[in-house]
Design goal:
elongated, disordered N terminus, Rossmann fold, 13 helices, 434 Repressor (Amino-terminal Domain), 355 residues, 3 domains, six-stranded parallel β-sheet, six-stranded mixed β-sheet, alpha/beta
Length: 355
Amino acid sequence: MRKRFRDLEGYGRARLADVAKRAGVSTATASRALNGRGELADETRATVFQAASELDFRPSPAARSLRTRRTSTVGLVVPYVAHSFYASLIKGAQSFLNEAGYRLILMNSGVEAESVAAAISTLVDHEVDGVLVSTTPFGAARFTQLLGPKPCVFLDEVISGAGNGSVALENAKGVRMLVDHMAWHGHRRIAYLGGPNDNTAGIERLAGFHSAMEEHEFGVPGEMVRSCDWSIKAGFAAALEILAAPDPPTAIVTASAELGLGVLAAARSRHLTIPDDVALATFDDRFFAPLLEPSVTAIAYDEVEMGRRGAQMLVGAIKDPKAEGNELRMDVRLVPRRSCGCSRDMSADLDEVIG
């Protein structure tokens, strides 16, 4: 077992002064050696590191923050920590932050404006060096008021006039790909089920649908477009309305996996077969998509990498607050499966899951 010295603190945590005493150098020299600063002989630096190892010395974050005016902590606000999308964002952000020497403080805020504001205020009060935000129930002015000079990067949202940048998906492109694929299958009467139009994804995915339908010169009757909450229950109710139209669609494109599940449930409740009676394709390629019956055609993207890129952008803003903010878009790709009418062996669906 490693021998540990506690000359000055009994069995307490080793201090920098303990390391200096053990190494036979001044406290200032020990500090320079451990922080890689100053001109020191290799032998002196090695002696200090050896002493630190023997004492199991760990620098005090509180002492470092007093010296540098930074805490090496970053806050992340997500609306639903248990959702697979946000869990992946967290994983990616934490991975990069660990590598960069930062600790992550996570706030599960929900989507209500008051709770999101409280989460941001808590992080600012705890002196985090920067904030990642993935839910935006209010505009730039309120964010600026809450954050003050604190660096901030938005994930999956774009807020013009606030923060130091954003990382979002190619939302419109993804929906255009879904419409194009349905058109390739011969569909002309295509319905769209989207989320609320008070956020980046909802707004841009709806715009992508209308853009693609116009490009194909397909008509879009009012009853073929519905917006609702991002939930299976809301998607089910809205899908029933679409399917009950006098001239129902032959295909439905949804703006999220949850809304796609709502369509599946609605079709089954009306004894409709997918894709024979109505084809389906969704944004969001969730882990369960290959296991559904039929397996669901979807738009895929790398949520983990999205979290990493956001954290990387934020750390850059922390180090250089005057740097100009930018907007990064993560690319998307189409994953064709059986719900749209593509011919695909069921074993291929299983291979996606079990390899």
